[in-house]
From TrEMBL, chain A:
Pfam families named among the record's database cross-references: PmbA_TldD_1st, PmbA_TldD_2nd, PmbA_TldD_3rd
Domain Metalloprotease TldD/E N-terminal: 25-89
Domain of life of the source: Bacteria
Protein name according to UniProt: TldD/PmbA family protein
Metalloprotease TldD/E C-terminal domain boundaries: 220-435
Molecular function terms from GO: metallopeptidase activity
Organism: Hymenobacter properus
TrEMBL record, chain B:
Taxonomic path: Bacteria, Pseudomonadati, Bacteroidota, Cytophagia, Cytophagales
Sorted UniProt keywords: Hydrolase, Metalloprotease, Protease
GO cellular component terms listed in the entry, alphabetical order: cytosol
Species the sequence originates in: Hymenobacter properus
Every Metalloprotease TldD/E C-terminal domain range: 294-541
Similarity comment: family membership: Belongs to the peptidase U62 family.
Name assigned to this protein: TldD/PmbA family protein
One Pfam family from the record: PmbA_TldD_2nd
MF annotations from Gene Ontology: metallopeptidase activity
Length: 441, 549
């Protein structure tokens, strides 16, 4: 029951709408079936499976709105759910930010599903492959494999109909030496689980762990760095690029409380804020990172440029803020692509006289929203580069840096790789600011 | 929660991207639904037994079930308007089993005999599949069954019984006060949680619990349009394990900060209108406050600030799952390993006495029994600067040679597996009478920090950096002026060993972390941290001001 076909989902939503007496009504279904396995100390720790589907009904009377949901689908429950949404709407205050529901839309059809599925047995096998590789070398693996299928369907009284099914699998592994003096990390996600190679990724983490033993301390200060994609983007926490791109809201900027606010009023759309080699866009049809076809409002996503050649081309406009400012609304994408070059991380290292290779950044938090200053630390593989070669591992460092400053100090941009549903290139940056040393391994 | 999971079903969900994060655990419902009783205990016991029996029949040597009804309500406002009212209910069944010495877990919102039996069988099937690649068999600390028992949080007024209109009026009143006092923007929020949890295990426990939490908060922003500078100040409230009574201010619960600081702290009740008035005044001062000169300072940290430092630098490193490496791939490990503990290296100075507890009334950690059926307690973590114990659950106690769990097991909902989480972790007040003014009087060159701001710490909990809400310079024993652009960086052991003095119990109060994240898939938990205002000598302060083009 968790995954409904387009036809079954729309038939159910159509029935729900027939129970509505409101001025506007929108019904949405969301379901998922997922499974995960977690391991640590070269042994399985926890694992589980989740299966759920739910219906949300939004009813509106004038500018008053109410939402109710249910997860049973007999006629009586569906009717009660609609009635409840209507009761809530009648009690709600009028919203000064009301915009009418969308009418029929045309959606792209992103290639967001794969036919392969993981099972409890294949998940256990992938974990075993990863753990066995490490155990054979007296290393300790901790990892997580999580994946499944989900769907979203929407239909409203204005004629909007939407449906999308997606599959996704995430894998990450941290490998530590038995004495705890070395640590390495690898992460990947894929639409098709068959494309995830747990063993190959674990080997990468193994190599990092072994080569990070006996780290030396260097003085904190400004250094040229090569930031691997996992140091730029994270799916489950704040990241340098995620914090920048998903922080590009027009409203905050117009209100004067964002790094994109203009002195004296307005926002910085149209200004060149970054190095001319920086281009960032979203493209739901990209086969490597297929995106959502529509956002929570039912707005169709499309290829949308956020930064082009260093110039801010677009900000996120909610439907309300867009209407107020007489500009088109921007559908909220679930990922982005940073354009890059052709060089691999290894090639970027080769072209570096002196610098630091950063595998991953961790616990990133905003220090100052005015300048988008972030702090955080390197983790799981930090190395000193000299004359185009990795010379020795170095102790982890805390940074205090703004992605805006960082993207003005570009030395080179590598080949983009998929990470957290985005395409992210490794970046070589000059004058990246480290402020203190950490003893953490 | 992953960002892409946020892109949900309704416009409300998209809007939430720009709001303070809160767990979207449930389904939206009529607010009145939050007052309807859930299943009665007899029904829950019958359903629990269906699950336990199905698991045993499928080959489980141990099983526990949790039937949970999780109610959440959040009201978001900005300036003169309500942005959203979200009332959610999440009801379902989770079953955890041991088969072939391996854990398995499954959950379902199909709470019928058939749905429960299917989930039980799936959990056993997963355990058996994983047992083939298992290296360490699960060892559970013995736990006697308690029979049929119950526990209720000692609240005075269920927040869900308060009409939404009254709550909206309170928040809009707070906003009006801030706007009257000249702030550019104000957001306010009221979050309320009720966990109705039923636990049963093959040990013979049937535990029914009713837990409440509430969190009022706001943020005000002042903007100088000409210069483009903006600053904000967040509320000095704490999330608490209380009912709506937290929002009825009592004079006895107010604690003044040091003379000259304009800070008021709150104990067991909160004066939101008073705090927003102070915030409105302070946020405008922040626009012109002096930018700090970096260097070494003696820090005087108020409990609302210090609570988060305790959370990150003591609470997390002493979680035994981190210490053992179970969180290596995400939240990290810990410097405070068993080997490190055995060396007897001081964690802090003699002033540092830190206690864990799951029992203090009104705190976020307080429950009668944890999520694996262990009665809760209070225990020492650090005594006179020495590490004496960790935070642990049933499958970890044997690792440190102990025979019982500390009762630290928690799951954010029926659909996630329970695991070791942080209890309340608190710095004990000084035994010698010491007021905040007396504490400040001894500081020659220092900074007083109130409220928590930006926070970051490494994965083994050595190096941290913290900001705050309001900063004041201390010169020759007196607060002199407000400062800005302050953050301090320290090493956990150096910091706690630089702890010079802590005020007495008159100043003691709790800070809370409402959404502490850990685990994969990530789960949220809520926890309180008590302390009195405390002094730390010679801490490195950096200046965080930067220029962008």
């Amino acid at each position: 029951m968790a995954i409904l076909s387009k036809e079954d989902a729309q038939a159910l939503l159509k029935k729900v709408l027939t129970y509505s007496t409101a001025d506007e009504c929108e019904a949405s279904l969301r379901g998922r079936t997922t499974g995960n396995i977690r391991y640590a100390r070269n042994s399985v720790s926890t694992a589980g499976a989740q299966d759920s589907v739910s219906l949300a009904v939004e009813s509106r009377f004038g500018k008053r709105s109410g939402i109710a949901t249910c997860n049973e689908f007999d006629d009586a429950t569906l009717k009660r759910c609609v009635q409840r949404a209507e009761e809530i709407a009648r009690l709600a205050p009028e919203s000064p930010e009301y915009v009418p529901m969308l009418g029929p839309q045309t959606y792209l059809n992103p290639p967001s599903t794969a036919t392969t599925q993981l099972t409890a047995a294949t998940r256990a096998q992938a974990a075993a492959d990863s753990m066995n590789l490490c155990a054979a070398k007296n290393l300790t693996a901790a990892g997580f494999l999580d994946g499944g299928t989900s769907f979203v369907a929407k239909r409203n009284s204005k004629g909007l109909e939407a449906y999308q099914q997606s599959t996704n699998t995430d894998f990450s592994v941290t490998v530590r030496t038995a004495d705890g003096r070395g640590s390495g990390y690898a992460i990947a996600d894929a639409t098709d689980p068959a494309k995830l190679n747990a063993k190959g990724l674990t080997q990468r983490a193994v190599d990092k762990a072994l080569s990070s033993v006996n780290a030396r301390a260097i003085e904190p200060g400004k250094y040229t760095v090569i930031l691997e994609p996992a140091a730029l983007m994270a799916g489950d926490d704040l990241s340098l690029l995620g914090g920048l791109v998903f922080g590009m809201g027009a409203r905050e900027a117009d209100e004067g409380r964002s790094f994109l606010s203009k002195k004296g009023g307005g926002n910085r759309k149209g200004e060149k804020l970054f190095d001319e080699r920086i281009t960032i866009y979203s493209d739901p049809m990209n086969p490597e990172v297929p995106g959502n076809a529509f956002d929570g409002d039912g707005l169709p996503t499309k290829r949308q440029t956020w930064v082009e050649k260093g110039v801010v081309k677009n900000l996120f406009y909610s439907r309300f803020w867009a209407e107020k400012n007489k500009v088109p609304a921007t559908a909220y994408p679930n990922g982005f692509i940073m354009a890059g070059g052709t060089q691999s991380t290894a090639e970027l290292i080769k072209g570096t006289a002196k610098g630091i290779l950063v595998t991953r950044l961790w616990y990133i938090r905003e220090v100052d929203p005015q300048t988008l200053l972030f702090t955080g630390l390197t983790r799981d593989g930090t190395f000193y580069i000299e004359n185009g070669q990795i010379k020795f591992p170095i102790k982890n460092l805390r940074f205090n840096e703004s992605p805006i400053i960082m993207l003005n100090n570009i030395e080179a941009i590598g080949r983009p790789q998929r990470l957290a549903g985005c395409l992210i290139p490794p970046l070589k940056i000059r004058d990246f600011t480290f402020t203190s040393l950490s003893d953490a391994i | 929660m992953k960002r892409r999971d946020f892109v949900g079903l309704t416009g409300l969900a998209t809007g939430a991207l720009f709001l303070p994060s809160f767990p979207s655990l449930g389904s939206a419902v009529d607010p009145l639904r939050l007052l309807e009783p859930g299943l009665d205990v007899a029904q829950k016991k019958r359903l629990a037994d269906v699950g336990l029996n199905a698991a045993k029949s499928a080959g489980a040597s141990y099983a526990d079930v949790r039937i949970g009804r999780y109610l959440n309500q959040s009201i978001f406002t900005r300036e003169k308007q309500v942005q959203g009212i979200s009332s959610t209910e999440s009801f379902g069944f989770g079953i955890r089993v041991i088969a072939n010495g391996t854990w398995g877990f499954a959950s379902t919102n199909n709470v019928t005999d058939a749905g429960i039996a299917k989930a039980a069988q799936l959990a056993v099937q997963i355990a058996k599949a994983n047992s083939k690649v298992q290296k360490e068999k699960v060892q559970l600390a013995p736990q006697k069954g308690y029979g049929e028992v119950s526990w209720k949080a000692p609240i005075q007024q269920n927040a869900f019984e308060v009409p939404i209109k009254d709550k909206v009026d309170l928040l809009l009143g707070v906003n009006a006060k801030a706007l009257d006092l000249g702030v550019s923007f104000v957001n306010s929020i009221l979050s309320q949680v009720n966990e109705q949890k039923y636990f049963a295990s093959t040990d013979g426990s049937y535990i029914d619990q009713d837990i409440h939490r509430i969190y009022p908060s706001f943020g005000v922003t002042a903007i100088d349009r000409a210069s483009g500078k903006f600053r904000s100040r967040q509320a000095l409230s704490a999330p608490v394990g209380m009912g709506y009574e937290y929002l009825t201010p009592k004079a006895a619960d107010k604690v003044a900060g040091p003379t000259g600081s304009d800070i008021i702290g709150y104990k067991n009740s909160y004066d939101m209108l008073e705090d927003v008035a102070a915030a409105a005044k302070q946020v405008k001062q922040k626009l012109t406050a002096k930018s700090v000169v970096p260097g070494k300072y003696d820090l005087v940290l108020d409990p609302h600030h210090l609570g988060l430092t305790i959370h990150e630098s003591v609470g997390h490193p002493l979680e035994l799952d981190r210490v053992l490496g179970y969180e290596a791939n995400y939240a990290g490990t810990s410097f405070a390993t068993l080997e490190w503990k055995a060396k007897g290296i001081p964690y802090g100075s003699k002033v540092v006495n830190i206690v864990a507890d799951k029992v203090t009334p009104g705190t976020l950690g307080a429950v009668g029994y944890d999520d694996e059926g262990v009665k809760t307690k209070r225990w020492d973590l650090i005594k006179e600067g020495r590490l004496v114990d960790y935070e642990k659950i049933r499958d970890q106690a044997h690792v440190v040679g102990q025979k019982e769990s500390d009762g630290c097991c928690y799951s954010q909902s029926w659909q996630d597996v329970q695991f070791q989480r942080m209890p309340n972790v608190s710095l004990q007040p000084g035994k010698t009478p010491l007021s905040v003014d007396e504490l400040v009087r001894g500081v020659d060159k220092g900074i007083y920090i109130a409220g928590n701001g930006s926070f970051s710490i490494d994965q083994q909990r050595y190096n941290f950096q913290f900001g705050g809400q309001v900063f004041y310079a201390i010169e020759k024993g007196k607060i002199t002026e407000m400062l800005e652009d302050v953050a301090y960086q320290a090493n956990t052991q150096e910091f706690w060993n630089a702890c010079a003095a802590t005020c007495d119990e008159r100043d003691f109060r709790f800070f809370g972390a409402f959404n502490d994240g850990k685990g994969q898939p990530s789960q949220s938990s809520a926890v309180s941290h008590g302390s009195s205002t405390t002094r730390f000598n010679g801490v490195n302060v950096i200046n965080t001001a930067r220029k962008i083009g």
